Amino acid sequence: MTSTAPATAPRIEAIELHRIEVPLVRPFETSFGRETVREALLVHVRTDLGDGWGECVAGRDPFYSAEYVGGAASVIERYLAPALLGATADGATRAVRGAESADARSAGVPLAASVAPALAFVAGHRMAKGAIEAAVLDAELRAQGRSMGEAFGAVRDWVDCGVSVGIAPTLEELLDEVTGYVEEGYRRIKLKIKPGWDVVPVGAVRELLGRDGLLQVDANTAYTADDIPLLASLDAFGLLLIEQPFAEEDLATHALLASACETPVCLDESILDAATAVDAIERGATSVVNIKPGRMGGYLEALRVHDACRALDVPVWCGGMLETGIGRAANVALAALPGFVLPGDTSASSRYYADDVTDPFVLGTGEHRGQLRVPDAPGTGVAVRDDLVREWASAPPITLTR
Ligand code: OSB
Ligand code: MG
User: Fold this and answer.
1) Which domains does the chain have, with CATH numbers?
2) pTM of this prediction?
3) What is the mean pLDDT of residues 176-199?
């Protein structure tokens, strides 16, 4: 018997799904809902190179996007894991060849680069796919002794951190919360807004921060074209950007707003991959891009979005989805790339959780006040506390094998 596949082609041996619930230190309210607990889906892969962890950024409910934790677990169990676990060494090798032509960074992680092509037969479900790819990437980089920062092309050891501030019950509570974050050292404030909670809180926080404090807003699709004059009136507050005021599919209204106001318009929900990013930029619908790897199907696509935006001179920043330390570690590594010129929603663990499933991310001091250090150990660079994953389980783990 002859085979074209080298005997050494790496493969995925098992995929374990862990659903956990982690209480938030304070409720997080947005225009689409209020969360008091982060329900997270963690993916643990076993490969013949070693193990790795990834975090699915889908929320408990399909409100921010169509994806949600239960749906992600289901699509992994029914479609994604069987496709990867049934893959022969041959299949992996074919995918690897495809990846080699894609870009040099992907070529350095052939097993991780084989994941997206192998899962392309399933439409959408980017967050579910991205979680698996992240876990495989962690395993592969650990085996190579390389950190994510090194593999991605990080150019800095520390990244600037902002904080995303939810809609508060009262203006007074909002100002208290923002004051606390400023005292902790955060370098940029992002306010969640919605109709009825916009001009007044934004004006009050601008006053609190002073003229030079970095401030931006995020509407999570809560407005319509009729609100363009109101949104344009936010120009008075010198915001860094207005994030995703209109529906995910609606690039046209974002372009209309961009031509009606001075404040840069930034897309989050609408940006699904490098192609949609370039299209949105060319249409004038966005002049800054929020990069969330989970929403784009993984870190390898996020790198392509970064590169495409950089080639067009469009600044990017790293978004967040209330990640535990697993997703946060990878986000911080990504945020160390040269195109990430604005502080990210890469806050310290304590902004979300009293305890994290990894060693907590803690803001630096002195010259590193308001920054997080980019992990430099192999893979994500963080160790996952199995005891807490077990203790916080909201459902029995599921193990999928070949
Ligand atoms: O729109 O950026 C968003 C959290 C969950 C879902 C969507 C968003 C957010 C945040 C929080 O703004 C960012 C973070 O601190 O992780
Ligand atoms: Mg957003």
Assistant:
1) 12-145+385-401 (3.30.390.10), 151-373 (3.20.20.120)
2) 0.95
3) 98
